[in-house]
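Predict the assembly for these two chains.
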Amino acid sequence: MQVSVKYFASLREVIGEANSVVDIEEGSSVSSLWQSIMDRKNIEFDNVMMAVNMEYVKSEYQLKSGDEVAFFPPVTGG
Amino acid sequence: MLIEIRKKPFNAYAEMQYYLDSLDIAGKFGATANFVGSMRDFNEDKKVTHMTLEHYPGMTEKHLETIAKESIEKWKLLDVLILHRIGKVKVSEDIVLVATWSAHRKDAFESCRAIMEQLKSGAPFWKKEETNSGAKWVEKNTPGF
């Protein structure tokens, strides 16, 4: 199945792109997707925050086809 | 309730008055609390010339809306206003405004503080500072308590 992935701020610069569409196995968790992206890009990134369909999720959250997944560093607004 | 992400500079105090004038709560509120965050010209001993604020369109607004709605419910607020800048921000410009209106001061004070702290810790915004020694992403917000 496919999910769309967005990256923001410093993480976007580390990854080198703002958006991508990624093929993953049915039932994959958001953390396994993140691990596969880090492996493919050969990067390490601590304290990543994860959201699915614009809501924060825990790392074990199970993805569904068509989900919009976002990875980003700790927020620094205000 | 009004939540807006602004690309252009705003005057927080004028915005608060303008919004209040559009409401029909005169005589119903006895307390107004507000927090205004503005841009400093320094951070961690470095001179900051300007900064760029990025957000996650859609999620940021949704997140702020949830915080505001929960606060209205919890503190029985009459209204809430949240404005936040994005894009290039210059020194001394306002970055964020949170204003709350309630019957009594306790609810206005507590809700304003709580909304601000939740915004700081969870709303998807990121700052990139331009200093004399180059551009740098701000890595974390300082604790509010």
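Residues 43 and 57 of chain A are 22 Å apart (CA to CA). The mean pLDDT of chain A is 97.
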